Amino acid sequence: MASGGYATNQPSGFGALQPITAGLGDTPDDLSSAAVHGEMIATRRVTVKRLMAQVVVVTVGAAIVTYSRRPTPLSATGEVSLGTITIPAATAVGKTFINDIDPVELAAGESLSFELTSAATSGQAVYNAEFDEQVEDHKNETDVTLVTV
Questions:
Q1: What is residue 138's three-state secondary structure?
Q2: Which of 20, 43, 70, 54 has its CA nearest to residue 124?
Q3: What was the pLDDT predicted at 9?
Q4: Can you spell out the DSSP letters for 45-108?
Q5: Residues of the chain under the 50 pLDDT cut
């Protein structure tokens, strides 16, 4: 296994999980609107092992975030829930919540979605996932093609 990493809805350099939805990295997520609020695509095979959410604006009311593996990015067809995090009402800024999950592999081309399934009255958070990058031959990845010049 390669060294572990963190996926986040904040901007970063090239990595194994990259934002693919509009707005990721622009601002923290508004917890008052239930919907899919972000998605990241695996650029190489990764094993997700921890889900995280960090509050950046105090919450009014509780919120529930559901993290899912999507075989086809930007499509809920065939998605599988990896776990949830409940952010309680009146959570202070800087409080981080984690959910250690049974490790789940995402192949290159699959995605990790962040869905606010139960909205708070107000508040903001950023969502994260801890993962290990897998050493993988591109020939074993159906969504990776080696381009030669």
A1: helix
A2: 54
A3: 43
A4: -EEEEEEEEEEEEEEES-EEEEEEEESSTT--TT-EEEEEEEE-TTPPTT-EEEEEEEEEEE-T
A5: 1-4, 8-14, 23
Q: Does the pTM of the predicted model rise above 0.70? A: yes
Cβ neighbour number for residue 135 with a 10 Å cutoff: 8
Q: Which CATH class is domain 4-134?
A: mainly beta
| Dihedral over Cα of 16, 66, 79, 33: its sign | negative
Amino acid code (one letter) for 126: V
Cα 131 from chain centre: 10
Which one, of 60, 44, 50, lies nearest residue 8 by Cα? 50
What is the structure's pLDDT at 148? 79
Domain layout of the chain by residue ranges: 4-134
The gap from C-alpha 60 to its chain's centroid, in whole angstroms, comes to 23
